[in-house]
Amino acid sequence: MTEQDRYIPGVPCWVDTTQPDPDAAVAFYRSLFGWEFEDVMPADSPISYLIARIRGEDVAAVGSQPERGGESATWNTYVWVEDADDTADSVRAAGGTVLVEPSDVGESGRMAIFADPAGAAFCVWQPREHRGARIVNEHGSLNFNDLHTRDAKAAESFYGAVFGWELLDVGGFSAWGLAGYGDFLEQINPGTRENMAAAGAPARFEDVVASVVPITDEQPSHWGVTFAVDDADAVAKRAPELGGRVLVPPFDAPWVRMTVVSDPQGATFTASKFVPENKDLGRDAGATTSAR
């Protein structure tokens, strides 16, 4: 860990999207979020990996699909770990599956891809030079990683064993908490707890590392991504103009106004505007998020 790190083991730290046509995805997200891109792969590489930046700081990436192919475009969640190989052992012991064994990504870090017992795929990141997203919770940057699941208690058993997560009730909704994360946030940003309390945040919200979205239809368990935006309605209007689709029109939920969007190649994400005035909306207002 460096003095500048904003993550500790067990905290989602990065997202990227794998796409059949990375250049087309770059055009979409550049226009939608204002991202700047740099392809960090060698000039003669057969694949692309384009880092998206805001004000020169890393926020996400767009990459080519794996050589094995066959996958649809998707957004991927990465969790910060101390040792990807040890985590692979923990995943197996907890009943999960190792989809891609741990391997080095140059000098950037070491990664692996796993699936929980319900089949939701996620990645882990053992950092070296690349230290995760440097801007979060601003327009066009990562706001939340979301596990869509039918059985949160079963998921708690798995993710608790692998990452130490616990299932929290935060204002009537379920989320993944990591003991000690709030202490870390207070250390790097003094006043975090006081500011959250003043805003009316639920108890232990400072320990939340990801959200839980109940699945109510036949879609498989999966990890999703939520980006912060200044205006969810504007995103819903602009996305179809760029070739995307609005899967769930903008709606109000506790603390936010959000919309669910698919990019032109099918990768789905949520765009969420922070709306403090919505903090007292009821539990049912957020039910539409399960449509992702």
Can you characterise this structure?
The protein is an alpha+beta fold. It is 21% helix and 39% strand. The chain is built from 6 helices and 16 strands. A hairpin with a 2-residue loop joins strand 10 and strand 11. The two termini are 35 Å apart.
What would a concise description of this structure say?
This protein has helices at 22-33, 84-93, 152-163, 181-188, 192-199, 232-241, and strands at 12-19, 36-39, 49-54, 57-64, 74-80, 97-105, 109-115, 121-127, 141-149, 165-170, 173-178, 208-214, 222-228, 245-253, 256-262, 268-274. It has 292 residues and is α+β, with helices and mostly antiparallel strands.
The topology string of helices and strands comes to EHEEEEHEEEEHEEHHEEHEEE
Order of strands, widest sheet = 2-3-4-1-5-8-7-6
Overall form: globular
Give the helix proportion (percent range). 10-25%
Note the total helix count.
Answer: 6
Radius of gyration: 18 Å
The assigned structural class equals alpha+beta
Q: Strand tally, please? A: 16
The major pleated sheet works out as: 8 strands, mixed
What percentage of amino acids are in beta strands? 35-45%
Low-confidence stretches: 283-292
Distance between the termini: 35 Å
**Mean pLDDT score, rounded?**
92
Key structural traits:
292 residues; alpha+beta; eight-stranded mixed sheet; disordered C terminus
Please outline the helices and strands.
Elements: E1 12-19, H1 22-33, E2 36-39, E3 49-54, E4 57-64, E5 74-80, H2 84-93, E6 97-105, E7 109-115, E8 121-127, E9 141-149, H3 152-163, E10 165-170, E11 173-178, H4 181-188, H5 192-199, E12 208-214, E13 222-228, H6 232-241, E14 245-253, E15 256-262, E16 268-274
Parallel strand pairs: 1-4, 5-8, 9-12, 13-16
Antiparallel strand pairs: 1-5, 2-3, 3-4, 6-7, 7-8, 9-13, 10-11, 11-12, 14-15, 15-16
